[in-house]
Amino acid sequence: MIQPMDRLPLPLEGITVVAVEQAVAAPFATRQLADLGARVVKVERIDGGDFARGYDTTAHGLSSHFVWCNRGKESIALDLKDPRGLDVVIRLVADADVFVQNLAHGAAARLGLDAATLCAAHPRLVAVDISGYGASGPYAGKRAYDMLVQCEAGLVSVTGTPEQPVKAGIPAADIAAGMYAFSGVLAALVRRGTTGRGGPVEVSMLDALAEWLGHPLHHTLHGGTPPERTGLAHAVIAPYDAYSTADGGRVLLSVQNDREWRRLAEQVLGRPELGADPAFATNAARVANRARTDELVAAALGAVGADAALGRLEAAGIACARLRDLHEVAEHPQLAARERWREVGSPVGPLRALLPPITLPGGDEARMGDVPALGQHTEALLRAVGMTDAEIAALRRDGVAA
Question: Fewer CB atoms inside 10 A, N or C side of the chain?
Fold first, then answer.
């Protein structure tokens, strides 16, 4: 048994990852690896680096996307179109455990950096190809930005109001692909531990997001009808929606069964007779009479402030939540009470960041390293692969390294 004084190391300490990555999907995957202790070497373009660096300047001059996805990495800036720059990556990969890339379709293969080629040369390597639509099929070469894949995967068709489909407010396709790439790396590393061989890992944004469409997709496949877009309401449960309160707040509640409806009717609505009323007594009846159901709930919650509404719902055992904006999330009392916020270093000073969701009690806390400047580690990494001062100077002079 592990005693309290026997701290476990982070699970990926000693693992080296090389990533030729950009935007969100691959950087988000490798950031998870870095948080769990892996050393991640990020290969960037010399002319501006990962293009996500230029998405915005809201994080005290840095891109919010880049800050989110790239802490804890070492940045080396290289021109991979020059054989000397590509040779540096090949040398780095020779000593790595994992390689990740999400270049445009065909680009990695042209450079010899696709998973199949690298794994043939390095049998212990785990090499990940992240693409928009997969390596084959009629969409293989199609441009695949997050919102485009949200549309192709059907997410937009089930998100929004009856009148207007909308995209998710986060890059859901990128995140889905990144998390499957992350879990694929972990699975391949476990397999390598038993077989001695790494191997290719393939993840496409479309495959990942289509999997996340599980409930509405199966509803359509087996029921024949796609679920309706219902805004914050639930397509097949009522009441399950957000309701305005007297002080301008909004409270979301969810009644999951008829017992809960009876408690809501008695303790919150003040109408116990509604618990047995055939028009409301079952979920099917409440869905059929959704407008009337919502009117009853809205009238009760609209008469009190948000705090009072939440208090009554909690006392009645009804699942509920406050509809928060992002400023309120940043000050969420639960995140504060559980001490989930940390500071990470960056070229512009310390920045707030959330601890990653994976918590490993009894072990070291997640390694939340600094957000790197472009090419911050170029010289050290060039020296690490055996380059001399003269060779490094030549690469810089010729614009191959920065």
Answer: N
**What are 113-147's pLDDT values in tens digits?**
999 999 999 999 999 999 999 999 999 999 999 99
Note whether 173 and 150 are within 8 A (CB).
yes
pLDDT (0 to 100) of residue 1: 47
pLDDT of residue 4: 53
Cα separation, 68 vs 33, in Å, equals 14
* Assigned token pair, 306: 């948000």
Reply yes or no on whether the pLDDT at 349 is more than 80.
yes
User: How crowded is the C-beta side of 28, counted as CA atoms within 13 Å?
Assistant: 21
DSSP at 345:
-
User: What's the token pair of residue 145?
Assistant: 């930005």
Residues 68, 107, 383, 201: is their CA dihedral positive or negative?
positive
| Dihedral-angle region of residue 72 (phi above 0 means left; psi in -120 to 50 means alpha; beta otherwise) | left
pLDDT of residue 224: 79
CB under 8 Å to 61, separation ≥6 — which residues? 348
Q: What are phi and psi of 42, to 5 degrees?
A: -100, 120
Q: Which residue has the tokens 């809205």?
A: 298
> Is the Cβ–Cβ distance between 126 and 198 less than 8 Å?
yes
Among 367, 17, 385, 38, smallest CA distance to 198 is for 17
Cα 133 to the center of its chain, rounded Å: 18
* Cα-to-chain-centroid distance, residue 353: 14
How far apart CA 349 and CA 322 sit, in angstroms, is 33
Angle in degrees, CA 203, 225, 173, rounded to 5: 20
Return the axis-axis angle of helices 205-212 and 172-195, rounded to nearest 10°.
100
What's residue 68's pLDDT?
A: 97
Q: How far apart are CA 314 and CA 373, in angstroms?
A: 47
26 membership: H or E segment, kind and range: helix 25-35
Q: Which of 246, 300, 308, 248 is nearest to 274 (CA)?
A: 300
Under 8 Å between Cβ of 233 and 254: no
Distances (CA, A) of 354 to 64, 124, 357: 13, 33, 8
Residue 370 is among the residues annotated as catalytic for this protein: no
Give the residue among 256, 118, 137 at the shortest CA–CA distance from 199: 118
Catalytic residue (choose from 35, 174, 247, 370)? 174
Residue 106's region, left for phi above 0, alpha for psi from -120 to 50, else beta, is left
d(CA 20, CA 17): 10
How far is Cα 32 from Cα 265, in angstroms, rounded to an integer? 45
